[in-house]
Amino acid sequence: MELSTKNDRQRREGNTNSKVTNTRKPPVATFLSIGIICMKVLCIQAAPIQFTKEPKSQDALHGRSAMLRCEVSDPADIQYGWLNNGQPLDDTERRFREVSNLKFTAVDRRVDTGNFECVATNTVTGEEAHSTNASFNIKWLESGGVTLKEPTTEAEIESSAPVTLRCHIDGHPRPTCQWFRDGMRLTEKTHQINNKERTLTFKSASPDDNGLYYCCAKNAAGHVCSNANFTLNIIDKSFPRPVVTPMDQVVLKNEEAVFHCQFTAVPEPTVEWYYDAELLTNKSRVILYTNGTLLITQVKPRNTGSYRCVGRGPRGPDVTLEASLLIAEIEDMSPRQSRVFTADTMQRVSCTAPRGKPQPEVWWEREGVRVPTEGRVYQEGSELVFSPTEQGDSGSYTCVAQNKAGRKTQELTFTVATAPVWVTKPQDSYLEEGRPGYLHCHAQATPEPEVTWHRNSIMVMPEDPRFTVFPNGTLRINNVEVYDGQMYACVSRTQGGKLSGNARVYVLEKLKFTPTPQPSQCLELDKEVNIQCSATGRETPTIKWTKADGGELLPHVEMRNSQLHFTKVTRSDAGNYTCIASNSLQGEIRAMVGLTVAVYIRFKLEPENTTVYQGHTAILHCQATADPEPRVQWMVKDKVLDTSRRRFQLMVNGSLVITDVTTDDTGKYTCIAGNSCSISDRVAQLYVVEKPVQTLVDHEEKAPYKMIQTIGLSVGAAVAYIIVVLGLMFYCKKRRNAKRLQKGQEGEEPEMECLNRGAVQQNGHTTAEIQEEVALTSVGTTAAAEKRHSSANEKLQFPREDLHTITTLGKGEFGEVLLAKAKGIEEGEEETVVLVKSLQSRDEQLQLDFRREADMFSKLSHGNVVRLLGLCREAEPHYMILEYYDLGDLKQFLRISNSKDEKIKSQPITTKTRVSICAQVALGMEHMSNHRFVHKDLAARNCLISGQRSVKISAPSLSKDVYNSEYYHYRQAWIPLRWLPAESVFEDDFSTKSDVWAFGVLMWEVFSHGELPYTKLSDDEVLEGLQAGKMKLPVLDGCPSKVYKLMCRCWAPSLKERPSFSEVVNTLGDLSSDSNV
Fold it and tell me: Which residues form the Ig-like domain (predicted)?
């Protein structure tokens, strides 16, 4: 009892001590708890590797290909490996990893046994996952011979005793066996056959059973026959018994073949030879000897086949022995590509024997010496093994295959790769503009390293005509330009490693005119004119104008900055002037400009719309004055007049006379007047009608009076109209002259009509102004032009009340852009969904741009450009009604296709579809450029797409709200900065080539799912990048290299290096037909 009490007390004391101890350890326990919680959090955050495809056990045929597949749900940072019976597998030419899968080119029943499992390892977290085990059920069939099983030796065979033959053909699954004697199949009804043991048993063998026995077997792997047969010869002296059996022969063509065949019997047996079913007799090349030997001299292909030696005795069946005759042959070995290995790795290279008779023997040689079967580099079967590779292993190796027909070889060059080492590293360089510049990059390695150059992290393409990369790694900039002042990087790499070096290029800018003044220019008499001359250099140059003959500038001629300003042009201003640009570092340069004072084209008499009876003579008057004297030419239905046609006569004064007119002469006639300084045209319509039959005499009497009345009214109306137009002309010219004082005279070539306001300047005048002048003059002097314009508008007029607004899409410069339904605007449709642009601005320039845009869409007719369906101009605001597509603008479509929201996400866009979208836009732009229009705002937001992936170019231009972030306010205008080249932003130079640049950005949008170009840069950074010539969008994942190369060509800094839209269409057309895209 005391002991129990004592124990209880000790137990209580122990518990008390435990409590005290526990109160001292909470911090450690707390830390452990926190660690466990953190581990759990990490486990939750790092999702385990999950297999989406695991290797599966499968049937395989020995010697045939097979594949074990393995994939995980998230392949990022995953490295794959394979185990066989728990041991890692090394890649060989027969068995290797193909991405994540394990590929067998030829399954081997001896090597590829056991379990295979895929191991996926996360290279970042170190997590490792093992797949389920898989194995091959390898089916095979292997030939063997027929042997004597019982009794053990042939000498023990006796008549009337049991004899058992064994067939040594084996395979998996177990093959079924068939037995043959002298080519005749044996059945289980007449013979004792054991399929399981593959044996043939004679319970009481007799000479009647003698013969040549062989077996054949088949299973799922195929069908084979025994490769060594058994001749049963139960001794009966009267029965013929083989003494010498003929052997199969393989000989060279024209070589002799000898078959020995001998039988024994009492009395002596006879021997006969057969070729197929033909009994052989002595001939010139076939000799039969008395001892049974058959000799065939000069063997030809027709002699090949099966030969039978037949022995006949007094008793018993004939004994037939067979042998084949073949001509020796060996096929050529196909060439193989050189191999490059990294140092210190295990490598196996197999050599497949070519087909041949007999089977060729294969071995490896190096420098004529056979590779041994042991050592670091050795031969194992037909494989050459490097265990491991060393630099000294580089060189040429020969795979040799040989048989009686000859020897064939296959040369292979192996190179053990080393890492590059610098010989000449790239260095910062100062290069002169306009001359070739060189950047050196030379590294040594084995093999010769591959060198690539990058300019501002963008690879220099080999096909880029501006650069040449020499074999030693040197980069030549063929003609250095200012924007070549960038950071360049050279990368030299082999399979053994890579080396990179950077160099900055500083361009020493030459003193040059920007642009060079045109050597011959015209001044319009009595007008205010500026002649531009600007230059750049390492120092800002000073510009000075002088007369070429050394004379002083006249008082009304002065220099304003770099311009030569004529307050009012006089005849005496004609002559040669010299622009001199100079600075202290580079001296001076000169450009001579010859100025001609001219009076621009003015029409004294213009062609008018004319209606003529068929068979009569039509006269279209056209007289123009100018200085120098203008030349007049006619265009008939947009084709140059063929003056060799007898009925058409061009008069000295410019008028056109057409005799004996026909209805085929009906059409548009254009009178073009031009001289060396200006050109202008007027258009008239000729209508040829049949002469009506006159039946009323009183009508003839009234005709003269009506004619006089009509002429009087027409003349009065024309005089009033001319007065109004002359007033408009004076007002417009006054506005133009004011504009010219503010605008430069830069530009290289005549430009085209633009979709939006502005155009490239041409000799100080914008083409938009020139075209406006022509249009106004035409309106002021030709009532016919106004009638045509009115007629075209009348056809497009659409009742405003038949438009029903669905929603407002956004707002652009002109005003609101609406989505509406239009009743009966398309034939065969009760209602059509259309895009409506409203003109809500009072700004005169915007109103002109609105009319110009409507005019452009009315003139374009192409499946990839939206059609102008109608106009509402009877009241304000004016409406322009354009075609619309059901999926809306291309930008939204691209964004939705990349959305993670499954409710709105569309079907994935394939690469071919993306190329097709780009090709359709290119086709539309080719049509637009062929009609001399410039879009100026080409982007995904301004293209429409249908559910059938059909694309049309449009111009919603929602710059005020929806896509406000994609426009930039610059020089009092909103411009699509990220889609424009430098010349459009800084020089207001818009052309087809600037549209090509924008098209390159649009292609990038298509392949980036509508991402904003240069999304990581602010607008100011983009502006700076354009100014520095550094802007090029990066390569995108999933974008074919050929497409990105085309983008880079579109972004060429030089306009001449950018492709035309026709080139773009051809390139994309080739890509669409490429099966690899």
Answer: 48-137, 144-231, 240-309, 317-415, 420-500, 515-590, 601-684
Neighbours of 583 (CB within 10 A): 17
Give Cα 179 to chain centroid, integer Å: 62
Q: How far apart are the C-alpha atoms of 433 and 478, rounded to whole Å?
A: 10
What phi and psi values does residue 562 have, to the nearest 5 degrees? -100, 5
Residue 55: band (very low, low, confident or very high) from pLDDT cuts 50, 70, 90: very high
- Average pLDDT of the chain to the nearest whole number: 84
* Domains of the chain from N-terminus onward: 51-138 (2.60.40.10), 143-232 (2.60.40.10), 241-327 (2.60.40.10), 330-412 (2.60.40.10), 421-508 (2.60.40.10), 512-598 (2.60.40.10), 606-691 (2.60.40.10), 726-781 (no CATH), 797-884 (3.30.200.20), 888-1077 (1.10.510.10)
What H or E segment, with its residue span, contains residue 783? helix 783-796
The secondary structure element, H or E, covering residue 423 is: strand 421-424
Q: Is 889 annotated as a binding residue?
A: yes
DSSP state of 799: -
pLDDT of residue 774: 30
With 0-12 CB in 10 A as exposed, 13-18 as middle and 19+ as buried, what is 206?
Answer: middle
pLDDT at 723: 64
**Cα gap 779→223, rounded to integer Å:** 95
Residue 837 marked ligand-binding? yes
311 annotated as a binding-site residue? no
Let me know the angle formed at the C-alpha of 737 by 734 and 740, rounded to the nearest 5 degrees.
155
Residue 1013 φ/ψ, nearest 5 degrees: -60, 140
Given a contact cutoff of 8 angstroms between Cβ atoms, the answer to whether 327 and 301 are in contact is yes
- pLDDT at residue 431 above 60? yes
Instruction: Annotate 592-607 with DSSP letters as a single string.
Output: EEEEEEEEEEEEEE--
Strand runs labelled E in 876-979: 878-883, 933-934, 943-945, 951-953, 968-970, 973-975
Burial of 454 (0-12, 13-18, 19+ CB in 10 A): middle
Q: 283: how many CB neighbours lie within 10 A of its CB?
A: 9
Task: Please give the C-alpha separations between residue 881 and each of 354, 634, 666, 813, 888, in angstroms, as whole numbers.
Answer: 74, 36, 32, 16, 15
Distance of alpha carbon 779 from alpha carbon 555, whole angstroms: 38
Cα distance between residue 812 and residue 962, in whole Å: 9
Average the pLDDT over 501-521 and give the result. 89
- Prediction pTM value: 0.37
Question: Residue 481, annotated ligand binder?
Answer: no
Residue 902, exposed/middle/buried by CB under 10 A (0-12, 13-18, 19+)? exposed
| Residue with token string 């015209």 | 522
Spell out the residues 6+ positions from residue 644 whose beta carbon is closer than 8 angstroms to its own: none
If pLDDT is split at 50, 70 and 90, which confidence band does 898 have?
Answer: confident
CB 248 within 8 A of CB 323: yes
Confidence at residue 568, expressed as pLDDT on a 0 to 100 scale: 93
Q: Which two tokens stand for residue 714?
A: 């027409």
Spatial separation of the C-alpha atoms in residues 504 and 512, rounded to whole Å: 24
pLDDT of residue 233: 84
- For tokens 């003839």, what's the residue? 700
pLDDT of residue 751: 38
Is 815 annotated as a binding-site member? yes
| Amino acid at residue number 1032 | K
557, β-bridge pairs: 566
For residue 824, give Cα distances in angstroms to 21, 139, 345, 894. 94, 73, 77, 32
Is residue 140 within 8 Å of residue 61, measured between CB atoms? yes
User: Which residues fall within 8 angstroms of residue 840, CB to CB, at 6 or more apart?
Assistant: 814, 815, 816, 877
Cα 744 from Cα 760, distance rounded (Å)? 11
Pairing of strands 377-380, 765-766: unpaired
**Cα gap 795→793, rounded to integer Å:** 5
Note the pLDDT tens digit of each residue in 519-559. 888 999 999 999 989 888 989 999 999 999 888 889 999 99
Quick check: bond before 151 cis, omega within 30? Answer: yes
